[in-house]
């Protein structure tokens, strides 16, 4: 329950990303600056937190053990997650990006076979692949139906090119974020906490953000003061607070694919918070009846998903046994 509550709070702070990215896009800000500035601003904030807790040196030792894995999975989990979201904000309203992002709940379940669990057998410690939690995915179909309905409602109002550019990058992000997050949890085990892992992944993904920002600086100059301020707010609320809350929640649920799926399902709350924020802050925000019904289906699917996971939740041992079959 505590992990689920942390996940809901994380979804509130993550919603800031969608609303402010839309504001920056509407104001003529570059999606490249929106993406890069978030992580460039996150770096000193996280450094202060981790250094204050005297955990920076242990983090560096951990990163030196697997430098290429840190670089690769950070590129996946942060780079291929956030850059596509910022790009999509150029073509789609915040509520639609947030709604499509909820496919991450299904994506997270589909990624399960890419991970192993260690079991004791007569031959010693053996690693076997985990199984897709099909029992929990029934409710995910409700979420998927809601996403399809939202996209269909938007398809009647915008050119197909804008629809694809607003949808496909988000779908890439829905797989990249849970994949990078889970691979880093697997790599680090429980040797570092959420603050340290967030800082480590920020440092490891810096080459991407420096390349993008250097390109944008050379071609278009510096970002506006307004975009810089909004990016700083995103860095604090979404990059630090939301990411640490979500990583903490997933760390708590790491030993059960069912609990992990439940925590990831809480991110559907972003849809509600984003829609409220967009209506309050962005003039001219419109949503059709079909789009509204789709949003409701996404939220209902999230609630049902969490409920089914709670009444069917197996122990860690049962998860291990399920992986064997």
From TrEMBL:
Domain of life from the UniProt record: Bacteria
UniProt cross-references to Pfam families, sorted A to Z: EmrE
Residues that span the membrane, as ranges: 31-50, 70-90, 96-115, 136-152, 158-177, 198-217, 229-250, 271-304
InterPro entries: EmrE
Keyword Transmembrane helix: yes
Coiled coil: none
Keywords: Membrane, Transmembrane, Transmembrane helix
Name of the protein this chain belongs to: Multidrug resistance efflux transporter family protein
């Amino acid at each position: 329950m505590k992990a689920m509550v942390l996940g809901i709070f994380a979804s509130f702070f993550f919603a800031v990303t969608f609303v402010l990215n839309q504001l920056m896009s509407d104001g003529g800000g570059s999606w490249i600056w929106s993406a890069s500035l978030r992580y460039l601003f996150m770096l000193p904030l996280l450094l202060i937190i981790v250094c204050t807790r005297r955990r920076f040196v242990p983090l560096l030792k951990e990163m030196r053990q697997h430098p290429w894995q840190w670089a690769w999975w950070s590129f996946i989990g942060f780079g291929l997650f956030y850059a596509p979201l910022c790009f999509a904000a150029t073509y789609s309203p915040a509520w639609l990006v947030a709604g499509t992002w909820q496919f991450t709940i299904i994506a997270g379940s589909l990624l399960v076979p890419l991970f192993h669990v260690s079991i004791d057998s007569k031959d010693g410690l053996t690693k076997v692949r985990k199984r897709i939690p099909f029992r929990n995915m029934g409710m995910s179909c409700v979420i998927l139906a809601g996403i399809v309905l939202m996209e269909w409602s938007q398809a009647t109002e915008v050119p197909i090119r804008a629809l694809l550019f607003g949808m496909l990058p988000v779908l890439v992000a829905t797989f990249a974020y849970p994949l990078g997050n889970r691979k880093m949890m697997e790599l680090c085990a429980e040797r570092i906490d959420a603050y340290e892992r967030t800082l480590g992944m920020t440092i490891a993904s810096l080459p991407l953000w420096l390349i993008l920002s250097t390109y944008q600086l050379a071609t278009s100059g510096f970002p506006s003061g307004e975009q810089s301020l909004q990016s700083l707010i995103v860095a604090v609320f979404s990059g630090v607070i939301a990411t640490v809350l979500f990583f903490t929640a997933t760390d708590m649920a790491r030993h059960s694919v069912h609990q992990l799926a439940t925590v990831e399902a809480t991110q559907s709350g972003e849809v509600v918070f984003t829609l409220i924020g967009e209506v309050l802050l962005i003039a001219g925000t419109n949503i059709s009846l079909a789009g509204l019904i789709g949003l409701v289906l996404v939220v209902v699917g999230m609630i049902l998903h969490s409920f089914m996971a709670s009444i069917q939740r197996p122990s860690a041992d049962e998860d291990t046994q399920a992986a064997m079959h």
